[in-house]
């Protein structure tokens, strides 16, 4: 598997990372090197082996249904560049 | 994912007429139902509706760096119970994935959802069709748990949008149906039934006005017998009426394009109820690449069969079972039973009235008199001024022939406005039915004597007897037993 330059631009856009035209060939090379490296895994026969979603053999911890958090609107919007009445303000997005 | 199967036989009555022939509309739905829980799916912040902006938000919901999600066991329980209520397969092991997209009300940059392994698999919902009659079975493809997003307000400022994350992280169940519906009526009936089941289970309050139940509706059309056409998805329709309207206009739009020789683009659309049209959400076209991958912050969700069995044992009686029981135990028609079980409170009220009484008479009074009156006043059974005990007493008084059906309506009116014990009211206001044949005979004689011409007519045309019954009833102030009046009249008139 390898990526072409159009794919590099598309991935960058989906991740909202600004990539200049000059950077594209370089990134394409880097991504393909990573993909080549991972490609080696295809040499292992994994038929009948269930995909591993976790490396820790433990049961997921669950919470009781209680309200234990919140009421900290000041803190939540504390780092926002713009706020009003505890709302975040962002450049207008309308469908 | 399972292959899409056409489970239905084409019904000519459900086809839509186009300019060049008939079309069949195919509908599938994704319902987002907010899980009833005190706190959020992965944080301890409150799920309460409303609240000051960003007040029900934890650092987890705001996606601050280093925060980790911890799952709410109640949400898991509710999802399993819902799966059981949908007669669906419950998966003892499921996993959480990240669905990646950018939007200001999604601070994580991804929604935690279940993509490959949902908590609940295939099930089914049996749906009654009140308008066209009959019953359909709608297949459930899956149910999975996921986070809700926050809310954006666009009308507060000329150039900025306001973001409130109170809803961010609240647990949703996405319930995906198979493409098993073939008309807007079927789609409305399906959502109505699903909502009833969720409310019985107490897993979602079904409040569509608050957005606690919303539907994405997939619509396509085809010529009867042909394979499925290209579908469009109408996002976030928030009332059952609008679901019906959106399907109608979207099917018409697609038929128009196809009949003009065009093709349908698979796309996401929005329904505008004001204009009665759907329109394309172009800005989201490119966003459909969600790059799902397993969420490394969460272990697989696992529980054993004993846990599921225990929940199954404690499920409440569900609408289908209750309806069957009402038909069997109280002799109700399927229609009446269906009306009564639509809401749990209604069914409970009815049972309180029907217990130890004639079930059909009780159903008539509850559905026709009580529901009719409640509707008119914008009330429901929980705020009814007439209690089941009072209504039961009215039904008893009719059954014991103490009052006539007509007087009973007056009595109902008095109990509704003034309250009180129906038996005492009948006693103190002299509303008892006259069963004394002597008194009735006297009234009949008087009417006959006053109307010799009508007597002649009645002999030629026996249906005239109705007029006489009316006159006698009027004389008695509605208190004469109509059956006795009828019999005495027949004898006296010789018909």
Features:
heterodimer; A: 95 residues; alpha+beta; Histone, subunit A; flat; B: 495 residues; Arc Repressor Mutant, subunit A; 3 domains; 17 strands; 38% helix; 19% strand; glutaminyl-tRNA synthase (glutamine-hydrolyzing) activity (chain A); transferase activity (chain A); EC 6.3.5.- (chain A)
What does this structure look like?
The complex is a heterodimer of chains A (95) and B (495). Chain A has a domain at 5-42: Orthogonal Bundle (Histone, subunit A), CATH 1.10.20. Chain A is flat, with a radius of gyration of 22 Å. Chain A has three helices and three strands; from the N terminus they run ααβαββ. The longest helix of chain A is centred in the first third of the chain and has 17 residues, at 23-39. By secondary structure, chain A is α+β, with helices and mostly antiparallel strands. In chain A, 33% of the residues lie in helices and 9% in strands. Chain B has three domains: 12-308, no CATH class; 316-428, no CATH class; 437-493, Arc Repressor Mutant, subunit A (Orthogonal Bundle), CATH 1.10.10. Chain B has 495 residues and is an alpha+beta fold. In chain B, strands 1, 2, 7, 8, 11, 12, 13, 14 and 15 form a nine-stranded mixed β-sheet that branches. In chain B, strands 6-5-16 form a three-stranded antiparallel β-sheet, with no helix packed on it. In chain B, 40% of the residues are buried. Chain B has helices spanning 73-85, 184-201, 240-259, 305-313, 319-330, 334-341, 344-354, 359-376, 388-399, 405-418, 422-428, 437-450, 452-460, 465-475, 482-493; strands at 16-18, 21-34, 71-72, 93-94, 97-100, 110-113, 123-128, 135-147, 151-153, 160-164, 171-177, 213-222, 232-237, 268-272, 277-280, 293-294, 301-302. Classes of the chains: A alpha+beta (95), B alpha+beta (495). At the A-B interface, strand 1, helix 3 and strand 3 of A face strand 3, helix 1, strand 10 and strand 17 of B. Strand 1 of chain A pairs parallel with strand 3 of chain B, so a sheet runs across the interface. Chain A: This is Aspartyl/glutamyl-tRNA(Asn/Gln) amidotransferase subunit C.
């Amino acid at each position: 598997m390898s990526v072409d330059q159009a794919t590099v631009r598309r991935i960058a856009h989906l991740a909202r990372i600004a990539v200049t035209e000059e950077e594209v060939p370089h990134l394409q090379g880097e991504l393909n090197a990573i993909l080549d490296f991972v490609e080696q895994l295809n040499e292992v026969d994994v038929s009948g082996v269930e995909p591993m979603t976790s490396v820790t053999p433990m049961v997921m911890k669950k919470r009781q249904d209680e309200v234990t958090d919140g009421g900290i609107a000041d803190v939540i919007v504390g780092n926002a560049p713009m706020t009003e009445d505890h709302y975040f303000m962002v450049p207008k997005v309308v469908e | 994912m399972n292959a899409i199967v056409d489970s239905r036989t084409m019904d000519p009555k459900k086809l839509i007429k186009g300019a060049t022939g008939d079309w069949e509309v195919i509908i599938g739905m994704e319902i987002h139902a907010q899980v009833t829980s005190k706190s959020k799916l992965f944080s301890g912040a409150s799920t309460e509706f409303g609240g000051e902006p960003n007040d029900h938000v934890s650092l987890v919901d705001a996606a601050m760096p280093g925060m980790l999600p911890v799952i709410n066991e109640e949400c898991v329980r509710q999802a399993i119970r819902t799966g059981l209520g949908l007669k669906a397969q419950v998966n003892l092991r499921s996993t959480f994935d990240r669905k990646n997209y950018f939007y200001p009300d999604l601070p994580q940059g991804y929604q935690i959802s279940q993509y490959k392994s949902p908590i609940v698999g295939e099930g089914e919902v049996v749906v009654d069709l009140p308008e066209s009659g009959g019953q359909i079975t709608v297949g459930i493809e899956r149910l999975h748990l996921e986070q809700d997003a926050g809310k954006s307000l666009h009308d507060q400022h000329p150039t900025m949008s306001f973001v409130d994350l109170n809803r961010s992280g609240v647990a949703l169940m996405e319930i995906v149906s198979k493409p098993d519906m073939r008309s807007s009526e079927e789609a409305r009936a399906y959502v109505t039934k699903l909502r009833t089941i969720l409310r019985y289970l107490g897993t979602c309050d079904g409040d569509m006005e608050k957005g606690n139940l919303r539907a994405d509706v997939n619509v396509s059309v085809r010529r009867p017998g042909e394979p499925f056409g290209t579908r469009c998805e109408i996002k976030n329709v928030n009332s059952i009426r609008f679901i019906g309207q959106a399907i109608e206009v979207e099917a018409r739009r697609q038929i128009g394009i196809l009949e003009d020789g065009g093709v349908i683009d698979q796309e996401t659309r929005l329904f505008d109820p004001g204009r009665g049209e759907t329109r394309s959400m172009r800005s989201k076209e490119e966003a459909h690449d969600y790059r799902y991958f397993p969420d490394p912050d969460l272990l697989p969700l696992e529980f054993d069969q004993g846990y599921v069995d225990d929940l199954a044992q404690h499920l409440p009686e569900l609408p289908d079972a209750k309806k069957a029981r009402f038909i069997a135990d109280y002799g109700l028609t399927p229609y009446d039973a269906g009306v009564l079980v639509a809401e749990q409170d209604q069914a409970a009220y009815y049972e309180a009235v029907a217990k130890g009484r004639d079930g059909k008479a009780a159903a008539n009074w509850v559905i026709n008199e009580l529901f009719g009156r409640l509707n008119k006043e914008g009330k429901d059974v929980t705020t009814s001024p007439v209690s089941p005990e009072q209504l039961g007493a009215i039904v008893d008084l009719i059954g014991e022939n103490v009052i006539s059906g007509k007087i009973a309506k007056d009595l109902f009116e008095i109990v509704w406005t003034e309250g009180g014990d129906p038996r005492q009211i009948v006693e103190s206001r002299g509303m008892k039915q006259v069963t004394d044949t002597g008194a009735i005979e006297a009234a009949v004689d008087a009417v006959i004597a006053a109307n010799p011409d009508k007597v002649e007519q009645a002999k030629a045309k026996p249906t005239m007897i109705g007029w006489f019954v009316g006159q006698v009833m009027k004389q008695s102030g509605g208190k004469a037993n109509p059956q006795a009046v009828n019999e005495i009249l027949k004898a006296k008139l010789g018909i």
